[in-house]
Design goal:
The protein contains 15 helices and twelve strands. The protein is α/β, with parallel strands linked by helices. It has one domain: Alkaline Phosphatase, subunit A, CATH 3.40.720. Strands 1, 4, 5, 6, 7, 8, 9, 10, 11 and 12 form a ten-stranded mixed beta sheet that branches.
Length: 485
């Protein structure tokens, strides 16, 4: 039910790839033709565009990130989270007086007088929102199909399927990144990359991971090319002297790259040679790519995004027209110490993403680069004493010159923790956990469409999308959420 539909994903590309595969020798084992398949993928890009996923590992607390602000809903939030007298801080509630500087002023007011502010540590992102360069997607999370609260509570999983293993960190990270539980081998970022390979002069640099192993950037053909914040990761025994000897280094370099008669040995050496060549090209391209924008220090997310900015600045040397990046920040699993630790984390997110946007302005590509946040899940609205527990839906941010900013998208959920059938509680499934009113597939499809993915190709990238939108008889769950220009 949750598997990526590989047949749909490759059908359109198959005919286009087959001619090129013939030139590479179809008698070769299929595995040895994967690289050639990667060079023959779908859409052809004439301009540059990049998607940058900012993943917040641990499950970010939505209620203290995009904070309800109008008196009616704030007072409910304040009571549920154990606030102090009046509208002062207490428990895990933020004081209303602390939110005025980060109040979000949308171009079109929300229904019912609803208002939101960002966490007080997120002044940079609040300014980007109010200047039309950032937007908020409300209550988004994994869904297999549109789901009401009654359907969620039903035992009929055949007609009302749920995402696998809800509220589990590892599984929900994987579901966000790949539409499947832990163990999935293909992510929607990588599947977008599959379609972009042919637009790049060097397909190796289509999907670049600056944060370590993750399924998000793995596709059928696209590779998740991993770098560190210092650039490409070299093979030390080839890059540096071995036992202090350049002769040993040169001999080893020759051994791991030379042609071999054994098929598997030869393929291993071919991959090694590609890695060595990739590292050299990254290093030479970055040597001439600098940004003057000041990024904050002591901030690992800022270090990652600065490297992404430099890679984007080096796009011509890398032969890149379409790229997908992954960066991340951990520490959001705040069952405890929410009030003391989340301000530091949200400040790092805001400062890093603001500096990154400013760097894209400096590079002249602000309208061509879109950064967006994601996380394992949201958290409970109720307090467990010093923090909040695992949830489901959450609020997320999109930043970039192509974002239709200064706006909220999706449905603003009522602030409630009761478990009744009333309309007020239809988006809550206990302890203030949000039942998503927008699916990750819709969120991803909106980004993918801007990136250049055709409607006919969406089903192969986002397997659950076929259950959403007018085509599925659900216009209340549109496939394009409208936040990209």
């Amino acid at each position: 039910m949750h598997l990526l539909d590989s047949d749909k994903h490759t059908r359109r590309a198959f005919l286009r790839r087959s001619g090129q595969l013939a030139l590479t020798g179809t008698a070769l084992p299929f595995a040895l033709n994967l690289a050639a398949m990667g060079e023959a993928a779908a859409f052809d890009a004439t301009d540059y565009k990049a998607l940058v996923c900012v993943f917040l590992y641990g499950g970010n607390d939505y209620a203290n990130t995009v904070v309800t602000y109008d008196d009616a809903s704030y007072n409910q939030y304040h009571t549920i989270r154990g606030g102090g007298a009046g509208q002062t801080a207490g428990g895990i509630a933020l004081a209303k007086s602390a939110l005025g500087a980060t109040l979000l002023n949308p171009s079109t007011p929300l229904p019912g007088g609803r208002q939101y502010a960002l966490h007080p540590s997120m002044g940079g992102l609040a300014n980007l929102f109010n200047s039309g360069r950032a937007a908020v997607q409300l209550n988004v999370g994994p869904l297999v199909a549109p789901l009401t609260k009654a359907q969620y509570q039903s035992a009929d999983r055949a007609n009302y399927p749920l995402p696998p293993k809800l509220f589990s960190h590892n599984d929900q990270v994987s579901v966000w990144q790949s539409s499947n539980s832990e163990g999935s081998t293909k992510g929607w970022g990588g599947n977008i990359g599959d379609l972009a390979l042919s637009g790049n002069g060097n397909s190796l640099f289509t999907c670049i991971n600056v944060t370590g192993n993750a399924v998000f950037l793995s596709g059928d053909s696209a590779l998740s090319y991993q770098v560190s914040t210092n650039g490409a990761v070299p093979i030390n025994a080839v890059k540096s002297n071995v036992y202090g000897s350049s002769a040993v280094r040169n001999a080893l370099s020759g051994l791991v790259q030379q042609q071999r008669s054994h098929t598997l040995e030869n393929e291993y050496n071919r991959v090694t040679a590609r890695a060595i060549g990739g590292e050299a090209l990254i290093a030479s391209s970055l040597a001439s790519s600098t940004v003057g924008t000041v990024f904050p220090t002591g901030n690992s997310l800022a270090d990652q995004l600065k490297l992404v900015a430099r890679l984007i600045g080096a796009r011509n040397g890398l032969g890149a027209k379409r790229q997908v990046f992954l960066v991340s920040l951990g520490g959001f699993d705040l069952h405890d110490n929410l009030i003391s630790q989340q301000p530091v984390l949200m400040g790092r997110v805001s400062d890093a993403m603001t500096a990154f946007y400013n760097a894209t302005v400096e590079l002249g590509v602000a309208n061509k680069v879109t950064a967006f946040t994601a996380s394992d899940f949201g958290r409970t609205l109720t307090s467990n004493g010093d923090g909040s527990d695992h949830g489901w839906g959450s609020h997320h941010l999109m930043v970039g010159g192509a974002v239709r900013g200064g706006a909220f998208y999706g449905t603003a959920p009522p602030v409630s923790v009761t478990n009744t059938a009333s309309p007020q509680d239809q988006w809550h499934v206990g302890q203030g956990r949000l039942l998503p009113s927008t699916a990750v597939d819709q969120y991803a499809a909106t980004l993918a469409s801007w990136f250049g993915v055709a409607d006919s190709e969406m089903a192969g990238i986002l397997p659950n999308l076929r259950r959403f939108g007018t085509e599925a008889g659900r216009p209340d769950y549109p496939r394009n959420l409208g936040f990209m220009s």
